[in-house]
């Protein structure tokens, strides 16, 4: 198993093809990837995108952003997505990507990392709990559709 932090100079066309042809299900909520969108994402200075490989196949992907608080100049990592392909679940892929994200956060002098997941997502909750977080919060999330 290998986790690679994806950068602009990587072969994004091949990566996009691997991602779009991987085995995802509804739990992943994966949209169709394209090179232009991934390039725009990676062009921002604050983004992190990981690809996890097993035997040259995509086993999972993760995205995050390094943020700065509007006070104290503290940096923190917001973890947006951690997705594991259906055929690679229960092999430690999610944990390996999470540990990689936390290592990246430390390398960027982040003081904390934050992520959220649905309360009924048992697999995600078990994974994140196994990493011994300093705090587990319950919260309500709001989504606003801005296209209408």
TrEMBL record:
Q: Which GO terms describe its molecular function?
A: acyltransferase activity
InterPro entries per record: Acyl_CoA_acyltransferase (IPR016181), GNAT_dom (IPR000182)
Write down the Gene3D superfamilies for this protein, in alphabetical order. 3.40.630.30
Q: Which domain of life is it from?
A: Bacteria
Q: Which UniProt keywords apply?
A: Acyltransferase, Transferase
- Give start-end ranges for the coiled-coil region(s): none
Q: What is its EC number?
A: 2.3.-.-
Any Pfam family matching the protein:
Acetyltransf_1
N-acetyltransferase domain location: 1-148
Recorded protein name is: GNAT family N-acetyltransferase
Q: Which organism is it from?
A: Reinekea marina
Q: What is the lineage of its organism?
A: Bacteria, Pseudomonadati, Pseudomonadota, Gammaproteobacteria, Oceanospirillales
């Amino acid at each position: 198993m290998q986790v690679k932090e994806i950068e602009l100079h990587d072969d994004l066309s091949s990566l996009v093809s691997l991602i779009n042809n991987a085995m995802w299900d509804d739990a992943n909520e994966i949209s169709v990837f394209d090179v232009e969108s991934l390039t725009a994402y990676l062009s921002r200075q604050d983004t992190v995108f990981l690809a996890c490989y097993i035997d040259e196949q995509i086993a999972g992907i993760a995205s995050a952003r390094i943020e700065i608080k509007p006070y104290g100049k503290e940096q923190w990592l917001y973890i947006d997505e951690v997705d594991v392909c259906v055929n690679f679940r229960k092999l430690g892929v999610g944990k390996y990507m999470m540990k990689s994200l936390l290592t990246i956060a430390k390398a960027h002098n982040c003081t904390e990392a934050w992520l959220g997941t649905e309360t009924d997502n048992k697999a995600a909750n078990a994974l994140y709990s196994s990493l011994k977080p300093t705090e587990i919060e319950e919260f309500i999330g709001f989504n606003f559709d801005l296209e209408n």
